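Researcher: Sequence of DUF5689 domain-containing protein follows. Predict its structure.
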Amino acid sequence: MNRINSAKTMGLTARFSKLLVLLAILFSSCLKEDINTAEGVPSDYMSILDVKTLYKGTDIVLSRENMFGASKITGVVISDELAGNIPKGYLVLQQTSRFRTRGVVLNFGANTTIPFKLGDSLTIKVEGTTLGRRNGVLQINGASLSEISKNAEQVFYEPTQITLKELKNNFDNYESTLVKVAHVDALTPNVPVAGENEIRELVGEKATLHVESTATFADKVLPINASYVGIPLWNNVTAEGTEGAKQFLWLRNLAGVSDESGALYPNFPETFEDGDAVMYASGYAATKNGNLKTGLYTLTNAFLGGEANDRAISGKYSLRLNQNSTTDSWCTMNFDLDYGASKITLWAGSYGASADLGSTWRVEYSQDGGSIWYQLGQDILTVSKDKKQFTFLTSIKGKVRFRIGKVGVGASTTNNQNGRFNMDDFAVYRNPTDDGTGVIVHPTYSDLFSWQFGSPISVGNEAASNATFAVTGITTPVLTRGFGVNASTIGGGFGSNAKDVLENGNPAQLISTKAIAISQKAYFQIVFNTLPSRTVSLSAIDLKIRRSGAGGRNHAWYYSINDTEFKPTGAGALFYEGTGTGQDMPTNYIYNTPELQNLPGGTKITLRMYIWGITNFNSGSFAIGLNANGNTTPVLRVGGKIIP
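Model: Prediction complete. Tokens:
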């Protein structure tokens, strides 16, 4: 019995051993077929990021062994040899790898003509070359031009925007890459940019801007304040390493100077950190009036938020404008700046909550204490929750104030974004050519055409009215109305009130907002053409308005030179709620609207005055005028220049 059991045990052991051998063979074959892809075949390329980490303070010859099987690098040329502000023989290559951007200098020698240019994408064999520092600059020496292949042209990197403090503290990371430092002051402005010039940011950190005397832009005058795009390089005239070396920002080319302006006004930027308690009260009260660091402000549908989703740029608080509003929301300066303005900057984004959509906003300025507002640039739709810095360049002379507002377009949807808007660090820069007297000098102009309704006295409900005066060189301008308003009777004027039906026959909305006025075509309109061989520039619109209690309270001028696309003339909406026989409005200056200047012969020009703030249909009155019977004083005038 024991022998039988022993035999059975030996048989089982033998069969189990055979099974183990079979499994081992199968497993081995599986291993041979399933190669570890994490190890893979060594790449022939090493990132610039990794190549630079091979340098440990002494020269190293690059080889396949220390480059883990690689022999080449790739990148895009960011140096501009044609501009002349890079050491002779230098080619600066930049690459982004694993979300980090690094650059390196390839030195071919001062007597070498480099056949590659800014924006070329290159592959370079660096096996056998030497990586080390020369006069402080980390560079690769010994590469051959014959071992370089061009992959593409005109591949351009956006510069990395950083502060001077960040550049100073992490210079090695930004060495040989393209960077931008924004809105920094020159310590010695108004001198040639050639040489070494110190620049300084608001917090006091400094850097040295370097331009060779042989650069094509060496005689460029150093601005008071500007933004610069350049390549950071160490400079050491006594040794090879960085000990004792200076940090230089080599300006890449003339295009690297932008956003030129005068000096920042005292106490700006407005950071919304130091203000009266009412400005921080929760909720979007219709209006809040109070002092901030830079002066007295009015907040409309807004407050200063300090939550994480407000994502302040500096400090705790940023300005937040409400969502879903049907009316515009504003942060308005109630004080003037005496030296005009050359630049406005601010950081803006949508509110950080995930459900908030973007919003449309604008910057406006006033030079008459806030009676009439002119828009800077165009409306901007901002959807990013990470704030970005926006820059507005201008050349305003005389006393000026600003307001930043979000356009009220109603309920926020994906097709009608009206989420909460955040803004921080609002800055205004002086106009360096303003003498501070506060005198506003407008260009000279004369009337191009005008209307008067006193002789003969108008009924007011005429379908159209030809200009009663027009210069030679244009067709007779014609004044009409849009579909959204009726012609109404008012002697000595050109009258209107709101129509209660749309063009498609559906009921109309009361025209309470500009958006409704635009969509329902509630406007007065002027159309004329320039004649051949004539050039026309428009400078100003002067207008007299008569309204009743239910008539429109707001109006704004738009224009078109292609008969389809209408744009703001540059002035914001004007609010007027007086009644009586008519009131002259502040002059609407449009000489700062580029598309309305130097219009050639054959151009069709349309001016539209949108009307809103109307409370009734088919009654009330909003009219141009009035003229008393026999009075011929113009009540609508458009001024400018015509050549010849």
